[in-house]
UniProtKB/TrEMBL annotation:
The name this protein goes by in its record: Glycosyltransferase
One example GO MF annotation: transferase activity
Transmembrane segments: 552-570, 576-594, 731-754, 760-784
Domain Glycosyltransferase 2-like: from-to ranges: 284-435
Keywords tagged on the record: Membrane, Transferase, Transmembrane, Transmembrane helix
One biological process term in Gene Ontology: single-species biofilm formation
Record's keyword annotation contains Mitochondrion: no
Native source organism of the sequence: Rubrobacter taiwanensis
Length: 803
């Protein structure tokens, strides 16, 4: 949408608009300048709509209702009266104008002052706005509605509206770009329109106005906004039948003579997104497909319509047994068939055959927005960027079961460190610089179905690169259409997660759960977190937003508690009411959460599909655990992914190892390979935190840890290992010894003794367990040392002397 604001004006024949002849000339000039939308602040006459239609313009109609700013006593009764009158105004206006071809949508309010929101309360104002939206939808279900918000009340929940509108006046480019990105991320998959932006030429000068509008419009286009409305078309501006003096925001003067800003706006509005750069890097889009004949055609149709100047499409048929290859041959793509390699192998095959500097990946069951590739490439312009990704949304035409699965936990989602940097982008929507992806050896072929995207992101981040996120790089991704398929998918994800945990143990906690630095953007927890708003003194902070504390308490946590209660009840039958009550509470909580999600997302009937969503919240963690338990069958790679890049380590005596030909610039990559060599031998190796003196840590299963520090001498890298017992497991073992010595042979009697505090110490049992623990401590230490030394010296031909 390429728009300008129009009005308000002095009262005239067409209401608060100029004479019809002036409107006709204004609209013709707008159309010639590339404008296709006009925001008006009051309800227009039908004659004005007809004039807009003649010039091919669409109007964003502002529905005016009495603003609480102008009320003498802002009481709650007055707020209710205002809301009722506003609903009636919306109903009447929408019924009159919704069918006109020149109406783009309705804006049901503009900048409710922060002081009014603070006085009445955020929830009441949000309910009033939601009531206006519902009234409009009742009058015209197909019409589009929004509310024009502004930074002071950015915390208002306007997610019920069809698209987001914001009025923003920022005069510093960096702050403007950062705020746009924040708004885009907050909007999720809904379009974002700037309904007011610009600069006062009387205060800053006409040249400065043109300069600021140039980078404002450029930033809005690069951020992927759905549209902009420059404030305003002309300096002729009236409010409440009075001319506004001292402000000159128009891109034309009162007599409609163009200012320098007019030509700037026209240049932006006449050009397309590819015109933002004189030269674009060549890109390769890789589609990995396995038995994808049902969705591949839709995917390739969307890729054929990409508005990117220089790209190719490669379809890697991963040993499909259906008509996938035949469908690919119907499109202008390169078909590559390499047999059944698995997902990572297929992606590597696409990488090897790609000719572009940028290699983008999209799943065969997804379709891309026409500007998808352009926004990914824009995100990769950051000097330290190695990869980029964007959101994936459920297609609105998917059947109800697929819509419910899309709202369930466990799907492919992005994890953001901030509004521009990601810790993880899902494999259905990602792109990488080819040289930097090749630097880490591409995708690890051990991941045959999932997990490769997480592995690649963490490897690149460990090398000091960043993963960028662009909220406008959209794909629509089909979810599984059956609960049985969802179960199989989550079991596969559990198996892949166990593999990722083995290769990146420093990114997981003791329970096998990933430790994310960023925020996971996906289905919320069944236990909502608290929300905060920094309002400043008297609610006058300039940029107020909603900060949400995610509780992170999901179905898996409740299942663990339930299992613990069942085990406890097995020891004492009197405790069985506890797990029964917990199971009922868990089921009720999931159902209520599912109903709430279905109602918010408009999946009707909410009681039916909300119940399914609640059931999926219970099913998903169980499926993940099943997948993790099955992961013990999966083999490790025989060598690390970077094997061959550096010479083998050779023992140098005194617990040291040496590798020749390693310089300072390669030190980080060398240590990453050492870590991979240890992991390839099923050892829990990870990078050491910056708080210690070591470079790598490696833990045994129970009691031991080896600390590895590196040092460069000349053209060689030396590693020294130090062996240390782990304190926490030893303390846990000591606690077990104490419990065994105090616990009677009868478990039920043990529960009673625990309840009554009457224990009888058994030194024989305690001594026996202590002996077993001591033997395990010594034997494991001996075995662990041998395994670490063998892993480090794997491939060495000889043992040199020390330095």
């Amino acid at each position: 949408m390429r728009g300008v604001t129009y009005g308000t004006f002095a009262p005239g024949e067409l209401g608060l608009f100029p004479a019809p002849e002036r409107v006709e000339r204004d609209f013709a000039t707008m159309a010639a300048a590339g404008v296709n939308a006009v925001r008006v602040y009051t309800v227009p006459d039908t004659r004005l709509l007809n004039l807009a239609e003649q010039q091919g313009l669409k109007l964003l109609v502002g529905v005016w209702w009495e603003d609480p700013l102008y009320t003498a006593r802002p009481t709650r009764e007055l707020l209710r009266e205002t809301a009722a009158a506003a609903r009636e105004t919306v109903r009447r206006t929408v019924r009159e104008l919704a069918g006109h071809p020149a109406v783009l949508g309705f804006i049901l309010g503009n900048e409710i002052p922060g002081s009014i929101v603070r006085w009445h309360g955020r929830k009441r104002v949000e309910e009033a706005l939601r009531g206006l939206y519902e009234t409009g939808k009742e009058a015209a279900p197909e019409a589009l509605f929004s509310y024009a918000n502004y930074p002071t009340t950015g915390y208002l929940d306007t997610s019920c509206f069809d698209f987001e509108c914001y009025n923003i006046f920022l005069e510093e480019e960096g702050a403007f770009r950062r705020y746009l990105t924040q708004l885009q991320v907050s909007a999720g998959g809904r379009p974002l329109v700037l309904t007011e932006l610009g600069l006062d030429s009387r205060l800053h000068g006409e040249e400065r106005q043109a300069e600021v509008l140039d980078w404002q419009l450029r930033a809005a286009r690069e951020a992927g906004l759905a549209g902009t409305c420059v404030f305003s078309w002309t300096d002729d501006w009236w409010v409440k039948e009075r001319r506004v003096e001292g402000w000159s925001f128009g891109i034309t003067r009162e007599d409609r003579e163009p200012k320098p800003a007019f030509e700037v706006v026209a240049n932006h509005y006449r050009s397309g997104l590819p015109d933002l750069r004189e030269e674009w890097p060549r890109a390769s889009v890789v589609v990995c497909a396995y038995n994808a004949e049902a969705t591949l055609g839709e995917c390739l149709e969307s890729l054929k319509r990409l508005e990117y100047p220089d790209y190719e499409v490669l379809v890697v048929d991963d040993g499909s047994e259906d008509g996938t290859a035949g469908i690919a041959r119907e499109y202008p793509v390169r078909l590559i068939q390499g047999g059944r390699l698995g997902l990572s192998g297929a992606r590597n095959l696409g990488l090897q055959n790609a000719t572009g500097e940028i290699v983008a990946y999209i799943d065969a069951d997804a379709r891309a927005d026409p500007d998808w590739l352009t926004y990914l490439v824009l995100a990769l312009e950051a000097p330290d960027a190695a990869g980029a990704g964007g959101p994936n949304l459920p297609p609105p035409e998917d059947p109800p079961v697929a819509q419910c699965i899309a709202r369930a936990p466990g799907g492919p989602v992005h994890v953001l460190i901030d509004n521009e940097r990601a810790e993880h982008v899902p494999g259905c929507n990602m792109a990488y610089r080819r040289d930097r992806l090749s630097e880490i050896g591409g995708f690890d072929p051990i991941y045959r179905a999932a997990g490769d995207d997480v592995d690649v992101c963490w490897k690149l981040l460990d090398l000091g690169y960043t993963i960028r996120f662009h909220p406008a790089a959209l794909v629509w991704h089909h979810s599984r259409g059956r609960v049985r398929d969802f179960w199989r998918q989550q079991v596969g994800y559990g198996r892949a997660e166990a593999l990722v945990a083995r290769n990146h143990p420093d990114k997981f906690n003791g329970l096998g759960r990933a430790i994310w630095r960023g925020v996971i953007y996906g289905p919320a927890s069944i236990v909502p977190g608290r929300t905060f708003v920094y309002t400043g003194r008297f609610g006058e902070a300039p940029f107020q937003r909603l900060y949400q504390e995610r509780s992170g308490i999901g179905g898996s946590h409740f299942l663990y508690v339930l299992l613990a209660l069942v085990l406890l009840a097995a020891l004492d039958p009197h405790l069985w009411p506890l797990p029964v009550f917990a199971a009922g509470a868990l089921l009720a909580g999931c159902l209520v959460h599912g109903w709430r999600v279905a109602g918010r997302e408009g999946i009707e009937p909410a009681w039916k599909w909300g119940s399914l969503i609640g059931w999926l919240y219970l099913l998903q963690p169980v499926a993940r655990e099943v997948g993790r338990l099955r992961s013990w069958k999966l083999a490790y790679p025989p060598v690390s992914a970077l094997a061959g890049r550096f010479p083998p380590l050779r023992p140098a005596g005194g617990g040291m190892f040496v590798a020749e030909g390693v310089g300072e610039a390669e030190r980080t990559a060398f240590l990453e390979e050492v870590c991979n060599r240890l992991r390839a031998q099923r050892l829990k190796a990870r990078s050491a935190p910056a708080w210690g003196m070591e470079d790598l840590l490696c833990d045994s299963f129970l009691f031991w840890r080896v600390l590895i520090v590196s040092c460069l001498y000349g053209e060689a890298a030396y590693l020294r290992s130090k062996w240390r017992p782990r304190t926490k497991p030893l303390l846990a073992a000591a606690l077990v010894v104490l419990l065994v010595g105090a616990w009677p042979p009868n478990p039920v009697a043990g529960v009673a003794a625990l309840r009554d505090g009457t224990f009888i110490w058994s030194p024989v049992a305690a001594a026996a367990v202590a002996a077993v623990v001591a033997a395990a401590f010594l034997v494991e230490g001996w075995v662990f040392r041998r395994r670490v030394r063998r892993a480090l010296s794997l491939g060495a031909d000889e043992k040199p002397g020390g330095p």
